[in-house]
Amino acid sequence: MSESTPKKMSLRCYGYRTRHGTWIASCIDLSLMVERPSKEESIEALLEQMMLYVESAIDAKDVESISYLLPRPAPVWERLLYQVLSAACRFERFCSSAFKFKKEYVVPQAA
Questions:
Q1: Is residue 3 part of a domain?
Q2: Span 48-71, average pLDDT
């Protein structure tokens, strides 16, 4: 058996301000979403959810099952919204009400 090499997984995230003034943050690669009163709180809550999900998936007894748990893609409509917001963020006027970022995790591979 060979030593397993860790793999980096880059998770795509985005967020936007709702009509009611709250902020939605979403990770399209884990299908996780949060809503909070501020942009900073939504990012912080999403990062915490992402960390907990990734840690739970990695802690699985069966290392081969990790590939079924990570990634866990969001529905197509949400991935399309990510693309639209990514394009919109190129224009300064939209960046005040939308954002995107990536977060990397190291995932162990099956031996």
A1: no
A2: 83
